[in-house]
Amino acid sequence: MNSPADPATAHPGQNDExxxxxxxxxxxxxxxxxxxxxxxxKLDWIxxxxxxxxxxxIAVVMAQ
Amino acid sequence: MSGPAAASGGxxxxxxxxxxxxxxxxxxxxxxxxxxxxxxxxxxxxATWCFLTGGYxxxxxxxxxxxxxxxxxxxxxxxxxxxxLSAGCQRYGLEQIDFCKPSFGQNGAKVILIxxxxxxxxxxxxxxxxxxxxxxxIVSALGYQPAGxxxxxxVALGIWLTYLLTTRGVHLxxxxxxxxxxxxxxxVLFMFYMLITSHGWDEILSxxxxxxxxxxxxxxxxxxxxxxxxxxxxxGGIGFLARNTRxxxxxxxxxxxxxxxxxxxxxxxALFSGLVVGSDDPTQWMVPLGGVVMGILAxxxxxxxxxxxTAVSLFASGLALRHLPGLHKRAWWQIIVITIIPLxxxxxxxxxxxxxxxxxxAYNGTMHAPVGGILLVDYFLLRHQRLHLPSIFExxxxxxxxxxxxxxxxxxxxxxxxxxxxxxxxxxxxxxAHWLFAWCPASIxxxxxxxxIYFVGMKFWPGKPAQTQAAGVATGSVKLVKPNx
Lengths: 64, 485
What we know:
The structure holds 2 protein chains of 2 kinds. Chain A is built from 2 helices and no strands. By secondary structure, chain A is mainly α.
């Protein structure tokens, strides 16, 4: 059956391996520089706040 | 693929375990580029819940006010709720319940899980009743008199089909969605075309709301609340989407554009249909708008779409249930059966529960607004976008997010304060409202107040938890004492 398995269903050896893999992932992600995940600057925030808060609020007030 | 990533062998057909489980995703494992992130969010947005939300709004307001409430409300709700989740889940590859642990504690996050499940299961129940109504309306369109029990029987059939789809895996679900999503786009465009050509703008704009409340200002306020609360309802899907993206822009722009804007637009088309046809039941719109043949065809596709929407919800609920200790080792089909049990009520009282749908949508605001406010303040203002990842997967008390017995009492108290605030401003079950509701949606009040209290409490409370140490970790230094994966 194609289903989301759980680590707990794996045999004990696999569990140890899984925990080591988890620790490795934690180390990689914790030490990773933000810039590796692309840029996201003040301009992005301004665009998002304008489009998602300011303009909608103006529209809501005007349609009231 | 080798090692733990292939822990379940053939069950994953070559997909890494981390995609389905709670393992933090590394950038190279993440599936969504720009177009696929937009495509997935679009497929989420164009689903049958648009029809439900538009139908409920049609009870209260006309076309213009309804369109503003649905589009603007959705955008506001989606942005407020997705800003911290998309930033944090994307940065650390985290699933969203894990992302709640720095704020709520190891065990406190499981309390949030209950809110999440209530939201998912509530939506699933409403959509299944829509499936049952669809069957009843097909029978009616074919010239037969549908029996009273048919809707309940349809819900039961829907549950069984959903179970089959969910237990046979995400690949089958994806195949179904690849057919259903384009079909739904065609149906929405067809509905819009028929509305414009058969009825015209004047008729749409002048159509009165179906069942407005006696106090005029309340209708606009409740419709706006509906829009914001349905935007906040995306809380359940945002972490999954964001952790699968490679860039920070791809984590948030598709959510705001597709789940906020596109969802609002499709809800508006549903609103227009409800106003023109004079019914808030989406399955009653198809035949009057498209004629018998096209109407029945559209109803069939909408019915199928209901099943895939429900399957997606139950799939996500099943994954979330894996957080609970007693359910770690259960077989997947047993997990799905557990998620189905609350849905059985919809077989016996389909219409009664369906009629509570608008209150349920608004109630989502009481669940998601305070949690969203707390997460926003915690991630951006208190932790400055830096988490201590080892502590998220550490159940031992030495973890930084253990707090008191695994609970951050302050955060949980703030959720309760947020819920009380919501009910003080607006009670969705009785439609009683404070005068403040005319100026401030209940979801916004329930978002802002707990966030402020949480910020002040965490910043200045003498007994506050230890400050997060979130700098980098030395190579080979991460050793979990009691890993909770």
